[in-house]
Write a structure and sequence with these properties.
alpha+beta; binds FE2/S2 (inorganic) cluster; 5 helices; 2 domains; DNA polymerase, domain 1; about 150 residues
């Protein structure tokens, strides 16, 4: 059975019918074709699915879509302004903050939240804040460099 839900996604109001058991991650990827948000583990361990809900970072795989009525959801697709990359996206490019790129959207969403929440006062603090975002390629040093560059 589906229930009606109105969501704000990347500044667009979407009226949707959703099964109550569907996660925000599956809604984004499978119903809305917003596949920038990645599924790594699907149980809150990897951070690949990180999005912002009302400006706070959230693992979309642990959030039910129907619970987001009236909230503002931002995904990696919503960060750039037209052709202009978000400064954090540009910094990841500049510092090679990725290798295979699979974890990158989640890394960038967490990195933006890290700055917004004021947790980028030292490299150590950044590493701590970003510890929920795993990268199998081991791009961590360059990710930290990118965040510190945007900070400064
Ligand atoms: Fe959500 Fe891994 S897919 S934390």
């Amino acid at each position: 059975e589906q229930v009606p839900v109105t969501l704000s996604i990347n500044g667009q109001t979407r009226k949707l019918s959703i099964e109550p058991r569907v996660t925000l991650l599956d809604l984004l990827r499978e119903q809305l074709d917003l596949t920038g948000t990645k599924k790594g583990c699907d149980y809150g361990q990897c951070g690949a699915c990180t999005v912002h809900i009302d400006g706070e970072r959230v693992n979309a795989c642990l959030s039910l879509a129907v619970m987001q009525e009236g909230k503002k959801i931002t995904t990696i697709e919503g960060l750039a302004q037209g052709d202009a990359l978000h400064p954090m996206q540009a910094a990841f490019l500049k510092h090679d903050g990725y290798q295979c790129g699979y974890c990158t959207p989640g890394q960038i969403m967490s990195a933006v939240a890290c700055l917004q929440e004021g947790h980028a006062n030292s490299e150590e603090e950044v590493r701590e804040y970003m510890s929920g975002n795993l990268c199998r390629c081991g791009a961590y040093p360059n990710i930290v460099k990118a965040i510190m560059d945007v900070k400064n």
